[in-house]
Specification:
The protein is α+β, with helices and mostly antiparallel strands and 344 residues long. It has two domains: 142 residues, 60s Ribosomal Protein L30, Chain: A (2-Layer Sandwich); 169 residues, Alpha-Beta Complex (Phosphoribosyl-aminoimidazole Synthetase, Chain A, domain 2). It has ten helices and 13 strands. A seven-stranded mixed sheet has the order 8-10-7-11-9-12-13, sandwiched between helices. Strand 2 and strand 3 form a beta hairpin. The radius of gyration is 21 Å and the shape is globular. The protein binds adenosine-5'-diphosphate (ADP) and magnesium ion (MG).
């Protein structure tokens, strides 16, 4: 019998509070477990290299809407989200196992589409699909992938390695996946009101692709190696820049100063933010699912990285007690919460 402990609502803790609570008493039994909970992937010592393990679950209704998400894209994105977590350790994904739970509303042809997407991603990222599990549920679709990867011991990048003075760097551009989602949600609303209307996705290819078919930045890991730069810390941007900066801050016990005018955004994404009445900076700070890499490098590596097209230096690490701030374009210092920044 369980003792009666009363009742605590999950929303009192939030996602990260819940994970912290559930994992605080975990006991490690093996010396080979180098890192358990708390980074983008777990780290296991294989002797001559580290093995990386991470898992990610996508739930219909919470993470995707099949009204505008082709199953092929969903399969592709599910792999990418996992590969991205291995990439964020400066590693290379090698194997996945895939578990699916589906209701009877899905046909064989539909699930085949999902697998076409999964396999296309395995081809693109050179990953072997080596197992999984298949089951039924009363409603909807759930896709869970566990990914395995490897990294050499000297190359691994954790969340906790940031040093005061390090440069904060981001790959690619930010906010586009979030604005792509806005376009898709808008077209869905119009469709539900007037089903004979054709969706108008003209001119939005890039931002819709960023939402439906993102890529993991394995090219950045290769680039850093080529430039002979070891990131002091790294994380992937799945929940939004502001949230990931807080994770780096918590793990490394540093603060950050970020410069609004350095934040990278695609011109169409910028325009669509304005069209929707959103602040483009808010989209960059809070918009999730870009799967870009956020990392820090020592200032002494500046000469090696400056002028590199694929990345932007957006700020630097400061002392923990200074906190996390953004210097706006008008030179005003704003405190950044994990939810980012509310424009006014
Ligand atoms: P990410 O955003 O990189 O996918 P998450 O925020 O999902 O990472 O998870 C943060 C950390 O908590 C990871 O180390 C993950 O393995 C761990 N974690 C998440 N959920 C659980 C759980 N239910 N039990 C144990 N560990 C968990
Ligand atoms: Mg991650």
């Amino acid at each position: 019998m369980f003792e009666n402990k009363g009742r605590t609502e999950l929303n009192q803790l939030g996602e990260f509070g819940l994970i912290k609570h559930l994992t605080k008493d975990i006991k490690i039994h093996h010396h080979s477990t180098v890192k358990g909970v708390g980074d983008d992937a777990a780290v296991i010592d294989l002797g001559d290299a580290y093995q990386l393990i991470s898992t990610d679950m996508l739930v219909e209704g919470s993470h995707f809407d099949l009204m505008y998400t082709p199953l092929k894209h969903l399969g592709y994105k599910a792999v990418v989200a996992n590969v991205s977590d291995i990439t964020a350790m400066n590693g290379k994904a090698t194997h996945i196992v895939v578990s699916i739970a589906m209701s009877s509303k899905f046909s064989l042809e539909a699930i085949e589409e999902l697998y076409i997407g999964l396999m296309a991603a395995c081809e693109a990222y050179q990953i072997d699909l080596v197992g999984g599990d298949t089951t039924s549920i009363s409603k909807g679709l759930v896709v869970n992938i566990t990914v395995f990867g490897q990294v050499s011991k000297s190359k691994i990048a954790y969340r906790n390695g940031v040093k005061e003075g390090d440069l904060l760097v981001v790959s690619g551009d930010l906010g586009a996946a979030y604005l792509g989602l806005h376009i898709l949600e808008r077209e869905k609303r119009i469709y539900l009101e007037k089903p004979d209307f054709q969706p108008d996705l003209e001119g939005n290819d890039y931002i819709i692709q960023r939402q439906l078919k993102p890529e993991a930045r394995i090219d950045i890991v290769a680039l850093l190696e080529q430039l002979d730069i070891q990131p002091t810390a790294m994380i992937d941007i799945s929940d939004g820049l502001a949230s990931e900066m807080h994770h780096l801050s918590d793990a490394s016990q540093v603060g950050f100063t970020l410069y609004e005018d350095k934040l990278p955004i695609d011109p169409i994404a910028y325009q669509r933010a304005i069209d929707f009445g959103l602040d483009p900076t808010v989209a960059m700070l809070n918009g999730g699912e870009d799967y870009e890499l956020l990392f820090t490098i020592s200032q002494t590596d500046y000469e090696k990285i400056k002028g590199t097209m694929e990345i932007s230096i957006i700020g630097h690490a400061v002392a923990m007690q200074e906190g996390i701030h953004m210097i706006s374009k008008s030179n005003i210092k704003h405190k950044l919460s994990a939810q980012g920044w509310k424009s006014f």
